[in-house]
Specification:
mainly alpha, 15 helices
């Protein structure tokens, strides 16, 4: 059990992951329903948090297999590479995550009386499986970092469509704009997650993070614009969401010299915009 605990602490810190999953659930509910939060929506928000946490854990385990050769070559001190935990031990963790994910999604379908949402979530699972195989274009994607990033972010299109089916949201321009705002928010979280410079055992910079490939100015600009534009789109270009989005973007630019400050500002902006939308 010690090796499993060490793995979670280093590769999947639950307090951080659950916190971001709560934020993601808030964004999904806020962007797919015009209703004020109700008891039913609070329960669904909690279940989305569980489903998304399990989804991220399943993805984390899948990535340990997908990225094995890359991690072996560049990160020998990670738990799997150190031998603290094996791929065989990770398999039941991934299967348990899938079981929890599907159970939470099914519970949401029952609570929302939306059985068609299960079909919508099947698309999420299928797309997720394709990312595990890098869309059968491993070598090509490895040479095109930005396309790799965009291709994997597309899974949130399917996640948003699933949320729409849960709440039975009408097809309108504002719903589409809300969806784009959600994509921008999730893209910002991904850039934030890898907003660092990583080095291999030889001290060489590994070209697998946004700071390493895009550089600081492009990465900061991407984060700032994600919130400035996302906040405006989510609020239909109305106060106060447009203002909060602009403030979040400016804050990231203001603290751009510090990696930790940029990451903290990204999380703050993510939650602020999401909560304002959720309760308005």
């Amino acid at each position: 059990m010690g090796s499993v605990a060490d793995y979670f602490r280093e590769r999947f810190p639950l307090p951080v992951v659950i916190t971001l999953s709560v934020g993601t659930a808030i964004w999904l509910v806020a962007s797919t329903t015009d209703e004020m939060p109700s008891q039913n929506n609070y329960v669904i928000t909690a279940l989305i948090t569980v489903a998304f946490t399990a989804f991220l854990l399943r993805q984390r385990v899948m990535d340990e297999f997908k990225d094995r050769s890359h991690d072996d070559a560049n990160y020998p001190n990670r738990p799997v590479q150190r031998g603290d935990i094996t791929h065989r031990q990770l398999k039941p963790i991934g299967l348990l995550a899938l079981l929890i994910e599907v159970s939470a999604v099914t519970s949401i379908a029952v609570l929302a009386n939306s059985w068609q949402s299960l079909l919508a979530y099947l698309a999420v699972l299928i797309f997720s499986a394709l990312t595990a195989y890098e869309f059968f274009a491993v070598e090509w994607l490895s040479r095109h970092f930005t396309i790799y990033f965009l291709s994997h972010q597309l899974i949130f299109v399917f996640l948003y469509i699933w949320a729409l089916s849960v709440f039975g949201a009408s097809h309108s321009l504002q719903v589409a704009l809300n969806g784009f705002a959600f994509m921008l928010a999730m893209a910002a979280l991904e850039v934030m997650r890898k907003f660092e410079i990583r080095r291999n055992s030889d001290g060489e910079i590994v070209q697998d993070t946004y700071l390493a490939v895009w550089g600081r100015s492009v990465s900061v600009t991407a984060l700032a614009l994600s919130f400035a534009l996302g906040g405006s789109l989510l609020g239909g270009f109305t106060f106060p969401l447009s203002l909060f989005g602009l403030f979040a973007g400016l804050l990231i630019v203001a603290v751009n010299k510090s990696n930790r400050a940029v990451q903290a500002s990204t999380i703050l902006g993510f939650f602020t915009i999401g909560l304002v939308a959720y309760f308005s």
